[in-house]
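Forum: Protein Structure Q&A
Topic: Joint prediction for protein chains with partners

I've read a bunch of threads here and the consensus seems to be that you should model interacting components together rather than docking separate models afterwards. I'd like to see that in practice. Below is the full input, 446 residues plus whatever partners are listed. Could one of the regulars post the assembled result?
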Amino acid sequence: MTKKLFLPPATTVDVVIFTIEGNDLKILLIRRENEPFRRQWALPGGFLFKNETAEQASYRVLHKKAGARVSYLEQLYTFDSPFRDPRGHVLTIAYMALVSHKNLNFTKRKELQNPTFYSVKKIPKLAFDHRNILVYAIKRLRAKLEYTNVVLSLLPKLFTFNQLQKTYEIILNRKLDKRNFRKKFMLLKLIRPTLKILKGERQRPARLYQFISRKSAELKKFF
Amino acid sequence: MTKKLFLPPATTVDVVIFTIEGNDLKILLIRRENEPFRRQWALPGGFLFKNETAEQASYRVLHKKAGARVSYLEQLYTFDSPFRDPRGHVLTIAYMALVSHKNLNFTKRKELQNPTFYSVKKIPKLAFDHRNILVYAIKRLRAKLEYTNVVLSLLPKLFTFNQLQKTYEIILNRKLDKRNFRKKFMLLKLIRPTLKILKGERQRPARLYQFISRKSAELKKFF
DNA sequence: CCAAAAGTGTTGACTGTACACCCATGT
DNA sequence: ACATGGGTGTACAGTCAACACTTTTGG
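Posted by a regular:
Agreed with the consensus. Here's the joint model:
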């Protein structure tokens, strides 16, 4: 076995960018232009610049690939198998980002590797070990929903109870009881009703709510 | 700002090695022999060898520094501030390891940087950002206790209910009710009584239990 | 008037917590 | 005999899950 110190693996970041669109949880994928895995779909990512933190690199990737104003970014896990990249030993620090669909300033530009949101239910074959990263990210997101207030990063500032509940249902992939959901969520004291009413839909108007604080919070008990 | 691709940070691993000894949760520290932070206490760690995974490097470090047969190893988080190491940009992938005190083959050898177990209540000043890593590790360990069966890695094969409960109490740093603890733990169906009895102490002999499976398990509800 | 989502309480099951005494052994 | 941890059950409180109907608007 060849052992040699100070020959570090190359370091990249890859970012799983989640958003809710329609009735789906979606992630952003780009189409690779270069080898390896040319023309395959992949998570947006890239090599670390000199003296750049992985978090800074993630923001850079997000901005460049998705034009997204991110409201939440979290490190997930470092994937470091020496065989995950055919070019050699390249480790990646995986992040997940949450973006309210309203905050996306997103143009599907061919010259930018054709960034496209895919429903997590219909993910194409991905380059590298990106499917593993995605699976890990979804698991983390589901877990975080249940004991933190991360959901606020996927919602607009003002939202109806129905939107809130839908977001939970879409991510957890199961129906929740309307009355129990409202009761529990109100007890958490995370959101408050505003005086505003959402009219103009073809049903009874709904009260709009907002988060009391937009700081991240961990809760003892939740769902 | 100087930006340059393909100039990766150096990569290390650092391992928080937990064990229970006496009535304390302890971690292994070594005394640095070289600069930077010469003669300060630090977590055992080291640079990745060529084509070595971080997990392999962690096992190597464990074996060399602690002579420990590790029953549990888990990646925690990657710390990557460019300023955490005065020599330059060195990122570290932090791991935590759990070792049953019985499995330690541990000699406090001066020539091996004087490895010493310290109670987490009395940690000296640590090199680099190792205190942050330790704080993170303790938080993760406490969380994992409550929804997995990791505790098995800190116990001998056969143990009394009292040892089991003590282990929880020491790590969570609070007293638990004896009757409720026994009731809940038995309902989990993780352990079974053996026919063996621990005699020779100066009290009523205690039944010895064992884990039904030593594979890691996640539980819906726990503590 | 019809369709669609908004909004609202009660009950029974279950889970968690608090709490005190006798037992078997070694010294 | 006494000190030490071993071992056991009950009752109350709090939380969770199941469940259906009326309201308000737009079309």
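Chain A has two domains: 10-139, 150-211.
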